Amino acid sequence: MDPLLLTLQLLLGALGILGVAAAAPTEMLAQAGRFAFCVVVTIAVSRATPLQIVRAAPFAYVVTMGLLVAVLFVGVSPTGSEATRWLPFGPVTLQPSELMKVVVIAYLAAFFHNHLGNWHIWRPMLVIGLAAGFVVMQPNVSTALFLFALAFAIMLAAGTSIARLVSISLSAAIVAIVVGGPYLAQYSYISDRISGFADLWGDQVDVQTTSYQATRARAALARAGVVGIGPGRPVNVPEAETDMIAVAIGQSLGLIGMITLVGSFVLLVARGLRIAGAARGPGALLAAGACAYIGGQAALNLLVAAGLLPVTGVPLPFVSYGFNSLLSVAVATGFIHAAFREVRAQGAAL
Predict the structure, then answer these.
(1) What is the per-residue pLDDT for 195?
(2) CA–CA distance, 309 with 114 (Å, rounded to integer)
(3) Structure-derived torsion over alpha carbons of residues 78, 83, 89, 91, reported in degrees to the nearest 10
(4) Is residue 208 situated within a structural domain?
(5) Phi/psi at 161 (nearest 5 deg)?
(6) Do the beta carbons of residue 135 and residue 97 sit within 8 Å?
């Protein structure tokens, strides 16, 4: 395993535990236990070769699609939520849309590695479009759009021509709209988030309703200062242990904590891209896709926390409370470690 990558993963996990301790103290030990388990998952995935990972990808895609379909019939949702995104499995709930992120990385890496430029667009079109469409049906528009962005990044890394890139993207979007589009009219939260974002930067007349979360987040970061107010103070922001955990860290550690948080992600993605550049075959695409996943999702979450994007519900990798995001990101990080092991075995310098 790459020592620098592992160190950054552990640092981000520690910041996450601190953020949960500030926002939801009773959940701190649970977060620590889940993160420790997910580090073990990263180690396990890293022991596989990139070729073994991509060979398992089609099977993983079929299973995960089955779970997405099952969510529509037996899925559960938290109290007060319009979304049905989780499957109960004993003491834990599984969120298949989070797992689909790493499955799409592995499947597209397998596809482009196996076909070497001689292929038709229908297979990646269906893989991306069906996955995004069923995620939209939950509804989870932000994750569906992120799946598109993730697939786009992998296709760029694979050297896909502009014509095929546009063809696949448009065709997959049509499939996703046909599958999931009719469900969007049933849910009001999408328009509420857009109007809340507009109110945050507008007249601020809805600070007790649609823009409440974003307004509280901005206020918490503003009063934190350079060094923060310490982790022992309550964080008066909804979802401060999950989607808004960056605010909990910022309030506790101030500007220094936020710089550490952002800098850790920048270093991790830079290291991962360096490994991807040195790797060959499927390992390069697995590492590049994992970097796009971690870096892209971190950027989205942090921009939302700063009030620069509408609230999306996208968790912060390694950091946000909850099992599903931690598990998915742990697998993605394992992809980068697997590519690193292969690069080192080939004697390449990093």
Answers:
(1) 65
(2) 38
(3) -20
(4) yes
(5) -65, 155
(6) yes
φ/ψ of 93, rounded to 5, equals: -120, 135
Residue 350 lies in a domain: no
Which DSSP string corresponds to 189-224?
HHHHHHHHHHHHTTT---TTTTTHHHHHHHHHHHHH
- Is 133 among the domain residues? yes
C-alpha to C-alpha distance for 321 and 204, rounded to whole angstroms: 29
Report CA-CA distances (Å) from 151 to 100, 156, 162, 268. Answer: 11, 9, 14, 20
* pLDDT score, position 325: 93
pLDDT at position 137 is 86
CA distance 288 to 236: 37
Other Cβ atoms less than 10 A from the Cβ of 128: the count is 28
Given a cut of 50, the residues of the chain with pLDDT beneath it are: none
Residue in the block written with tokens 């310490």: 230
Give me 98's structure tokens. Answer: 């989070």
pLDDT of 322 reads: 87
Q: How many CB atoms lie within 10 A of CB 11?
A: 17
Tell which residue, 349, 344, 341, has the closest CA to residue 50.
341
pLDDT at 192: 63
The percent helix, strand, coil of the chain (3-state, each to 5) is: 70, 0, 25
Let me know if residue 314 belongs to a domain: yes
Let me know if 174 is exposed, middle or buried by CB neighbors in 10 A (0-12, 13-18, 19+): middle
- Model pLDDT for residues 243-258, shown as the tens digit of each residue: 889 999 999 999 999 9
- Phi, psi of 233, rounded to the nearest 5 degrees: -95, 140
Distances (CA, A) of 264 to 16, 20, 22, 249: 12, 18, 20, 14
Question: Domains in the chain: how many in total?
Answer: 1
Domain that holds residue 205: 3-345
How far, in Å, are 19, 97, 266, 289 from residue 251 at the CA level? 9, 30, 21, 32
Tokens 């809340």 identify what position? 196
Tokens linked to 8: 């950054």
The helix (H) or strand (E) run that includes residue 89 is: strand 87-89
